[in-house]
């Protein structure tokens, strides 16, 4: 039995943060030892919302690549590539757009959600409306068996499956239906208690120097009931404790929770434990980031080599898709 294929991507719409690390990169590293993995930097997807200012796009692509490698992705195990270097993604996107009803795109939950959330950008573009279609092309062109997603992202996989079935019904069995590889992505809170997001400017970035990480944690929001050191609190109301659930041991979680409830420890003491554990996770990443940042030629070679390998698969898929539709040669 052949090894099954996994496909996933990440947008270079800004610098990566610890939410991206625990929500995607650490999972990607685990999967690369179990599946044939294709991981791409979704630079075209970044344009769906960042089209008006692309001045930092190259730097963000570099940041994603460096962080992928620093987190433990191995180019010898996984194919790491840039979406825009595999032009066949765009070709398949065009073909899929011919058969996809407009209503399917309009009903994707995140379409209206993001339009209501993002006030500083004009998202009334086809690129934004059609990004689930481009996403479908990303998946189908590699005939991926699985796409790692959280429960909230299942609708994106379902629309890909629907588009896949519709295409196959018209033209024959060109694409297998991909399945979501359900993964428990922990919710990572930002320094202000909301979900960690570049939009909210509340992130701990993987590129932040140690002193900045420490400062961000030290000034984080905590339980509002603990105004004085002697006030008792509820750890579940503290964003700091939510990060403890991800980065601290069960014993440490129990100790800081008890200290919070009894006022046995202060918020600074609680934060010191979290800072220590964050540094344990981030120090190896910082070291590897510094290594790769000194080797720009190596970064280019890794991205170009991965993109070449990905394109070989994409070209083969497109030959089958064109043939099924009746495009191409006359013989």
What is the typical, i.e. mean, pLDDT? 93
- Distance between the first and last residues' Cα: 35 Å
Helix content: 55-70%
Q: What is the radius of gyration?
A: 22 Å
Strand order of the largest sheet: 1-2-3
Q: Return the string of H and E elements.
A: EHEHHEHHHHHEHEHHHHH
Enumerate how many helices there are, as a single number: 14
Strand fraction equals 5-15%
Largest sheet: 3 strands, parallel
Instruction: Determine the structural class based on helices, strands and strand pairing.
Output: mainly alpha
Could you give the count of β-strands? 5
Inertia-based shape: elongated
Q: Which residues sit in consecutive blocks of at least 5 with pLDDT less than 50?
A: none
Task: Give a written overview of the molecule.
With 331 residues, the chain is mainly alpha-helical. 55% of the residues lie in helices and 8% in strands. The strands form two sheets. The protein has a three-stranded parallel sheet with strand order 1-2-3. Strands 4-5 form a two-stranded parallel ribbon. Helix 4 runs parallel beside helix 14 (296-325) and helix 11 packs across helix 13. It is elongated and about 85 Å long.
Quick summary:
This protein has 331 residues and is mainly alpha-helical. It has helices at residues 18-31, 43-50, 57-71, 88-99, 102-106, 109-117, 126-129, 131-140, 154-171, 210-218, 239-247, 250-262, 267-293, 296-325; strands at residues 5-10, 36-41, 78-82, 146-149, 179-182. The strands form 2 sheets. It has a 3-stranded parallel β-sheet. A two-stranded parallel ribbon has the order 4-5.
